[in-house]
Amino acid sequence: MARQNDPFSQNIDWLTLLLYLGCVTMGWLNVYAAVYSPEDHTSLFDLSTNAGKQLMWIGTTVILIICILVINHTFFDTFAFVFYGFMILMLILVLFIGSNINGSRSWFKFGSFTIQPAEFAKVATALALAKYLDVPGINLTKQKDLLYIAGIIVLPCILILASNETGSTLVFASFAIMLYREGLPGWIPAVGLSAAALFILALVFSKLYIFLGIVVLLLLVILLMPRYNRTLPNLLGIGLVGLMMMGYVAGVDFFVNNVLQKHQRNRIKVLVDPTIDPLGVGWNVTQAKIAIGSGRLQGKGFLEGTQTKFDFVPEQSTDFIFCTIGEEHGFIGSFIVVALFIALLARIVILAEKQRTKFARVYGYCVAGIIFFHVMVNIGMTIGLMPVIGIPLPFFSYGGSSLWSFSILLFIFLKLDSRRAGAMWR
């Protein structure tokens, strides 16, 4: 009977747990490599370094995980909206009493440690979405339900954006993956992807070429339509869509030059032309690609990265931790890390599909979407395929807020999944 209250006797998915432990361990070792100095010979356990502090964060994370596994699974369902409301309050408070770090007022500072509420807001929003979508009768084809869901997602986005934390705001777009799985009409994500593609094209090519491309595309649509659908209203509708697309493309320059802040414009410019100002705004991306490329197939070896030792890559233990992996462990090491994340994401999706409750399934897809977005953007920005928006690599980047939030996010789902497996204590 005693073992029923033991969190380690529950039917936790051990494969997911092993993948998680692999990510955390490799992350800690690479944080150590990123801050290692051959002159100082600092230890892995030196609490004055990022590696030592990360170990302390790992220790506190274990305590959080045990708490999650001990709590009854109904707690997360029952108090989902309470968590959401609390995090909204924290996002408001941080605007007034938070510390400004790197131009972003999004941190609570306690001595030498900092906590970023935006990281935990993703967990709270995932729980709130799962709770709302679990209500019988909710349908993503209904306008009212879509508006409520949009409100749940947009509210924290507005508050996070107000703290000048653009990267964390963009992560909330990952919830579209879950919404599509739950029945979101396909045209909505299609419009979003088309808008993103047109935005990038407008930055790279002449507007005239894009306009001609839109005209050709619409003519092809009309020619491929069945003859009986070529009615005047349909043709006018297609023409209106074309005009809206052209207007959107024409407004991209105004948005970039007059709405975005200077550092945001610079990040977009570097994405479009990586050679621009290599000693200035392009420094991070240029040095990151040099570090990863210099690792070649097998890498230079653990603690042997020259780009790392001489601090060529800024923020290498946080946002650019993947550079350390690429330089010291090469293509093979980078492939192993990517494969590890793919396996973790695949396992989460498989478990989500097996859930007996909609709440658990929706939450599982939220977990997969958030982790996928972080991995895709973080690795993409270090190799020049994504703009540098400053989001961490899950379980690898240095930082307590990041490690805590991703661990809480994952283990709440594992707790919900253990109920499905039939080994949950009552």
Automatic annotation (TrEMBL):
- Topology with respect to the bilayer: Multi-pass membrane protein
Q: Where in the cell is it found?
A: Membrane
An annotated GO cellular component: plasma membrane
Which InterPro entries does the record associate with it?
Cell_cycle_FtsW-rel_CS (IPR018365), FtsW/RodA (IPR001182), RodA/MrdB (IPR011923)
Keyword set, alphabetical order:
Cell membrane, Cell shape, Cell wall biogenesis/degradation, Glycosyltransferase, Membrane, Peptidoglycan synthesis, Transferase, Transmembrane, Transmembrane helix
The Gene Ontology biological process annotation of the record reads: cell division; cell wall organization; peptidoglycan biosynthetic process; regulation of cell shape
Q: Which GO terms describe its molecular function?
A: glycosyltransferase activity; lipid-linked peptidoglycan transporter activity
User: By its UniProt entry, which Pfam families does this protein fall under?
Assistant: FTSW_RODA_SPOVE
> Known PROSITE patterns for this protein?
FTSW_RODA_SPOVE
Report the main location listed first in the record.
membrane
Q: Where are the transmembrane segments?
A: 12-35, 55-72, 79-98, 146-163, 184-203, 209-228, 235-256, 331-350, 362-389, 395-416
Q: What is this protein called?
A: Cell wall polymerase
Organism field: Spirosoma arboris
